[in-house]
Write a structure and sequence with these properties.
The complex is a heterodimer of chains A (423) and B (182). Chain A has two domains: 178 residues, Alpha-Beta Complex (Sulfite Oxidase, Chain A, domain 2), CATH 3.90.420; 121 residues, Sandwich (Immunoglobulin-like), CATH 2.60.40. In chain A, helix 1 runs antiparallel to helix 2. In chain A, the strands form six sheets. A five-stranded mixed beta sheet of chain A has the order 5-4-13-8-9. In chain A, strands 6, 7, 10, 11 and 12 form a five-stranded antiparallel beta sheet that branches. In chain A, strands 19-18-22-23-24 form a five-stranded antiparallel beta sheet, with no helix packed on it. Chain A is of the alpha+beta class. The radius of gyration of chain A is 24 Å and the shape is globular. In chain A, strand 4 and strand 5 form a beta hairpin. Chain A starts with a helix and ends with a strand. By secondary structure, chain B is mainly alpha-helical. Chain B has a domain of 117 residues: Orthogonal Bundle (Cytochrome Bc1 Complex, Chain D, domain 2), CATH 1.10.760.10. Chain B contains six helices and four strands; from the N terminus they run H-E-H-E-H-H-H-H-E-E. In chain B, helix 3 crosses helix 6 and helix 5 crosses helix 6. The radius of gyration of chain B is 22 Å and the shape is globular. The chains are: A alpha+beta (423), B mainly alpha (182). The interface between A and B is large, with 60 and 53 residues. Strand 15 of chain A pairs parallel with strand 4 of chain B, so a sheet runs across the interface.
Chain lengths: 423, 182
């Protein structure tokens, strides 16, 4: 039988024998933990098998699993009444893998979630085109389709940490405005050809059917014409209302706000419309009082999700895991520092790594029980490196509100408490 | 799916081409000019899309009190939702206040946004004249048009907003440079 003191002495031994950890000692520690468990519990305690509940039309989560988004308002305004919420954040600290469960995909809506009857929904495509056309959802479903796994990220993701780091934030609070789903729909290029767009038109207005009629001007670069699509499917089923049912624009790698939900109009023109969402909002105020505009691409980013804010870890073996993504393409590597950004080690990526999708990374770590800071840094295939906070703030100031992609640091105190810090 | 479309799909999948103009009307239906007008609500900085009609700041004061002040406060400040006036001179400070007066680069955007999205509970419920009037009123609260000022489709695009030059376009997507090379 293994006593508590034996475990503790093994844990104390960890710092000394750290070098040999992965090779030999790990077996020792894990073995000891298993032995202790064996001493206090028995397979005989596991409840007996027996017939379960009736089979249903669809399956629900186990009653033992609690997974919820958190509706929030502006930075610092958390756990608000649903009627005051402007977004709802993904619980990354409780998720595994690369794909966000559909009902936990983050949401930012500007005028609530409209209740749209797909039979009555229409998409108008007009402007500088030869043949203005009206499409129903059924029309879109009959067309050739693409299916692609992509991240969508609100440009407000990370906005809690511009000016200060509240120590009691979880990764859901700091980074819950990005998610990855598989989307299915019609390539934008196909629709452009159907209406016979004028060659002189290089800008497209996309408008939603929500109360706010959210609209954005989209430059028709080759990349965007090749990759954008009008989606009606999400993780194999029709879009959820919160994500644009019955159809939305998907713009791989670009600002979440450009992925117009409840899409009802595409109009082709020759210059941006300067809508409220590309002037008053989603522009980044710099320290000198000028604002960056049309910063449409989402940057190279990563965050450690386990362990992360408000968790508590034990000395000894810990697996560090997190998510990395870039609007520039594929993630090339993720490095992790467990000594406050002094030294870095390359993490393992879970394959396959997809362009403009989140990828899970992980690394083995033995914590010696001393206070420290852990942080991740990603590099994408174009060579863009996620900036450290200091150089990021030096370039952007602290008033930008949107497009925060500085490295996220978690501090760990002597009791193993993991907390949000600036760097 | 008709067999013609099946052939069509097979064709595009093998040839890798996503267009076949002859079959265009197999998908969707033509949009009529009248129905396009119903939905074509966007307003550009050059004033394209602005309707006929006009409104004065004085008329707008009452319309604002009846339809907007409950959320945005009397005079567009101190309400439970976005502040609409003031903040000029704060953008480079540690506490920038972004409002129509201090931050918005185009007055046309104000008409567009109020018409499409406000009042929040019943967007689009104001007439063109009423929308011009509240637009004039909000601009007057910011000292951009006089308290007895009037706006219409000719004057609105000519208004020079205080922060008109406050934006730096991202080089990759700068409208002045993009698509100009070819």
């Amino acid at each position: 039988m293994t006593s508590k003191t034996q475990i503790e002495s093994l844990q104390r031994a960890v710092p000394v024998s750290r070098r040999g950890f992965i090779g030999g000692l790990s077996v020792g520690i894990l073995g000891a933990a298993a032995a202790e468990a064996a001493g206090t519990e028995s397979l005989g305690d596991v409840p007996d098998r027996g017939p379960g509940a009736d089979l249903g039309a669809h399956s629900e989560r186990s009653r033992f699993v609690k997974l919820d988004r958190i509706p929030e308002a502006t930075p610092g305004k958390r756990n608000v009444e649903p009627s005051d919420a402007i977004n709802s954040k993904t619980p990354h600290q409780k998720l595994v893998g690369n794909i966000t469960p559909t009902d936990l995909h983050y949401e930012r809506s500007h005028s609530g979630v409209p209740d749209i009857d797909p039979a009555q929904h229409r998409l108008l495509i007009h402007g500088l085109v030869e043949k203005p056309l009206v499409f129903s959802v059924e029309d879109l479903k009959r067309m050739p389709s693409v299916t692609r796994v992509v991240f969508i990220e609100c440009t407000g993701n990370g906005w809690e940490n511009w000016k200060k780091a509240d120590p009691d934030l979880t990764v859901q609070n700091t980074h819950g405005l990005v998610s990855t789903n598989e989307w299915t729909g019609v390539p934008l290029r196909f629709l452009i050809d159907l209406v016979a767009k004028d060659k002189g038109s290089n800008w497209m207005l996309a408008e939603g059917g929500d109360g706010a009629g959210v609209d954005r001007s989209i430059p028709l670069t080759e990349e965007i014409v090749n990759e954008a699509f009008v989606a009606y499917g999400q993780n194999g089923e029709p879009l959820r209302p919160a994500h644009g049912f019955p159809m939305r624009l998907v713009m791989p790698g670009f600002e979440g706000n450009l992925n117009i939900k409840w899409l009802r109009r595409l109009k082709f023109g020759t210059a941006p419309w300067m809508t409220r969402w590309e002037t008053a909002r989603y522009t980044q105020l710099l320290a000198n009082g000028k604002a960056r505009q049309f910063q449409l691409r989402m940057e190279t980013n990563s965050v450690i999700t386990q362990p992360s804010g408000m968790m508590q870890i034990q000395p000894g073996y810990n697996r560090i895991s997190g998510l990395a993504w870039s609007g520039h393409g594929k993630i090339a590597k993720v490095e992790i520092s467990t000594d406050g950004a002094r030294t870095w080690k390359q993490a393992q990526l879970s394959l396959p790594v997809l362009s403009k999708a989140q990828v899970r990374f992980q690394m083995d770590w033995v914590w010696d029980g001393k206070p420290t800071r852990i942080v991740s840094r990603s590099t994408d295939e174009q060579g863009n490196v996620q900036p450290d906070r200091q150089s990021f703030i030096a370039a952007m100031g602290t008033n930008a509100l949107f497009h925060y992609n500085a490295q996220q640091t978690w501090s760990i105190d002597e009791a193993g408490r993991v907390r949000n810090v600036l760097a | 799916m008709s067999s013609r479309n099946k052939l069509f799909l097979a064709g595009i999948l093998t040839a890798g081409m996503l267009s076949a103009p002859a079959l265009a009307f197999d998908f969707g239906r033509p949009a009529t000019p009248d129905e396009i007008k119903l939905w074509d609500i966007d307003v550009s900085p050059d004033g394209k899309g602005l309707p006929d009609g006009s409104g004065t700041a004085a008329q707008g004061k009452q319309i604002f009190a009846d339809n907007c002040a409950v959320c945005h406060g009397d005079n567009g400040q101190g309400g439970i939702k976005d502040r609409l006036a003031g903040g000029q001179g704060t953008l480079a400070s540690n506490m920038p206040v972004k409002t129509v007066g201090s931050f918005w680069p185009y007055a046309t955007t104000l008409y567009d946004y109020i018409h499409r999205a406000m009042p929040y509970p019943t967007p689009g419920s104001l007439s063109a004249g009423e929308t011009y009037a509240v637009t004039a009123y909000i601009l007057s609260l910011n000292g951009i048009v006089p308290a007895d000022g009037k706006v219409d489709k000719a004057s609105l695009p000519k208004i020079r907003m205080p922060n008109r030059d406050g934006f730096i376009p991202e080089p990759e997507f700068d409208p002045a440079k993009l698509f100009r090379k070819k």
